[in-house]
Amino acid sequence: MKDHKHFLSILLLAGSSLLLHACSFSFEVLSTPTSAPAVADVFTPTPQVLESTPDQTSVNDTVELASSDSDRLGLCFSYPQGYTQLPSTDIVEIIAPDLPGTDTKGLFWIEISDSYDRTAEKIADEDMTFAAGVDVGRWTETLDGEQAVVLDGMPGQDFQRRVYVVHEQTLYVLAFMPTRSENKVANDQMEALYNAVTSSWTWSPCSARE
After folding, report:
1. What residue ranges in 5-121 does DSSP mark as E strands?
2. pTM for the complete prediction?
3. Is residue 120 included in any domain, yes or no?
4. Which of 110, 84, 115, 116 is nearest to 97 (CA)?
5. In the predicted model, what is the mean pLDDT of the chain?
6. Sheet holding 93-95, edge to edge
């Protein structure tokens, strides 16, 4: 009888253990959340906005040559606003604004002399002899009715663009510097000077262009 009771106790203990294990397994299954599949972040690049660089060689705002110099020299022209006409009693000289980290900047001046009955083309040919070994560009412009010869790349402190024009037996050489410079900004300043001066050039009286 005692063995029978002992056997029943073992059965009850085993049954209880199985029941507890089943409940525990059920709880773990029910309490485990379903993991959602990971979604990779999609990188959308922000479109780059390209800033436009203003054309440094075109000129909208200009300043006229001082009237005292126009009357004295018998010519008129404009130059870019922000550039400076240096005070001088002999020559006209226009300089561009300073550039950071360099002494190079756009520069324009005028050389005036007697043509000695030579044409602008003849004088340009003579000056070409000083440019041996240099690939000098050459073309023509018209300055208020007078044909001018342009030599680009003439030797000097820096390479120069020189414009030769004869008016009433007087030779005018318009010198622009630097040309062909590795300093692009200084080169653009020179181009701005060249475009402003040559496009506005007239012989006195200045009112004739209005």
Report:
1. 62-64, 75-76, 78-80, 84-85, 93-95, 107-114
2. 0.70
3. yes
4. 84
5. 80
6. 84-85, 93-95, 107-114, 170-177, 160-167, 146-154, 137-143
CATH of residue 161's domain is: 3.40.1000.10
Residue listed under structure tokens 């780059």: 48
- What confidence score (pLDDT) does residue 187 get? 96
Give me the mean pLDDT over the 118-142 stretch.
Answer: 96
Inside any domain, residue 8:
yes
Range of the domain at 9: 1-28
CB contact set of 115 (below 8 Å; sequence gap of 6+): 123, 166, 169, 170, 171
How would DSSP label each residue in 119-134?
A: -HHHHHHHHHGGGTTS
Question: Cα separation of 58 and 195, whole Å?
Answer: 7
